[in-house]
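INFO  loader      accepted 1 record
INFO  loader      residues=472
INFO  predictor   begin
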Amino acid sequence: MARYDRLTALDASFLHMESLETPMHVGAVSVFEGEPFFDASGRFRLADVRRLVASRLHLIPRFRRRLMPVPFEQGRPVWVDDRRFDIAYHVRLTALPSPGDRAQLMALTARIQSQLLDRTRPLWELWFVEGLEGGHVGLIQKTHHALVDGISGVDVATVLLDFTPEPTFLQPPRWIMEPPPNPVRLLLDTWYERATEPAEIARTVRAALRTPRRAAARIEELARSLSTLVDRRAIAPRTSLNGPIGRRRRFEGVRVPLPDVKAIRSVFGGTVNDVVLAGVAGAVRRLLIARGEDPPASGLRVFCPVSVRDDSERMQLGNRVSGMIVDLPVAEADPVARLEAVRAETRDLKERRQAVGAAFLLDLTHYAAPTLMGLAARVMHHQRFVNLVVTNVPGPQVPLYCMGARMLEAYPIVPLGLNLTLGIAILSYCGVLHFGLFVDGDAFDDLDVLVRSMEESFRELRKAADEHADRR
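INFO  predictor   done
INFO  writer      dumping C-alpha cells
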C-alpha cells in the first residue's frame, strides 16, 4: 500500500469548518525596516524576495503541495505536489498610497485576511506592502490552519526569515515533483486504512491490559483530566461577544512590554500566561461595561489552545494542539483579585491536566469516519461552550530579518468561528507582547474601545505591582 501525506483529523476539521464567513487560515502582519527591500533606483526587489523564499521551500515541503480529496469524500485528503506551483502566485507585492499610516495597514490586513485561500493551490500567501510611512515595509501572511498551528507557524517564520542582517540564499536540492496518486488507488488504500485502524486500537488496548498497574494509573490520570471538561458549565454565558458573523473583518494590534508582564508575575506569582489572561479579563470587562452589559458573574469562558508538540516534532507542519477552557473573572473589579482568580483556575486545570484529556479526545477523532468528522466539525463550529479564543505563542526574543531588513513588529491573527466575533492572538517578540485583535466588522464598531481597554488593563496591573513592591 502506498504511503500518503494525509491530513490528520484535526487538520481536516479546519477544512470542514471553513465557509465564506469563516475563513480558516491563521496569519500575521509584520512591519519591517524598508531600505534593504529597495534597489538603487527605488524599486522593490520583488524578484530577489521570491528567490529568497523559493530557496527555502525544501525545508517546508508542504508549501509546494496542494490538497487532493479522496473520491466521494471517503477519507481525509492527502497532500500532493502542485504541478503548476508558481512562487509569484504566493509571494505578492501591493502598496498603500504613500505615506500609508498604521490604520490603512490594519484595514488592508483585515481585507486580505477576510478572503479564502484557493484550495487548488498550496494554502499560503505572503503579501509585501510598500508605501508605509517612515519608509517601512509591511508583510501580511496567511496560511491555512490545516497546514500549520501556532507553534509550527513560528517555526516556519524562522525558516523564511533570518537571524542576521545578511540574507541567506540557500542552494536547495533539485525539486523532483511526484505525480499525484491514481484516484481509484487512493480510494482503495483509504478503505484499507479505515478497515485496519480499529485493529490498531484493539492491539493498543491489549498491550495496555498486559500491564494492569500502568493501565490503571493511566486511566485514573485520564479520568481526572476529562472531568475538567465535563464537570463545568456546559453552556457559556450570553454576551455581545457571541452571535452571527458576516464576511467583513477589522484588525488592530496592541503592544505590551514583556518586562512589565514579568514584573507583575514576579510580584504576584503565577506564569506569564496567567498575567496575559488577567489582562485580557480586565480589557473585556471594560468593553462589556462600555457596551452597557453586566459582566457575567460566572466568568467568561475562554478556550486557550495548548501545544502538545514536543522537540522531536519541530518543523513538522499540521496541528498538534489541545486546549484548556478557562473561566475569566470579568465580574471582578480588582485587578489583583482577577489575577489571583486566574492563577487558581489555571493551577487547578494543570493539576488535573485538562489539556491531556482534550488531546485524548482529539486523538480519538483520528479513527472517526470522515463524514462523521465533517458533521462534528460543523456542529462544533456553532458551539456555545466558549465565549472567546485566546492563544499565546512564544516567539523569538532576538531580532529577525528579511532581505536584511529588521522586523520591528509582528501581530498574529487567529480565525473566527461562526459565533465568535472576537479572537485574540498574542506573539512575544524581542521583549514585547504583540496582541492581534481580530473581530467581525459588523459586531465591533467599538474596536478602539477594546484597544484602549487592553492598554489600560495592563497599565492597571503594572501599577498595582509597583505599589505592592513599594510597600514591601
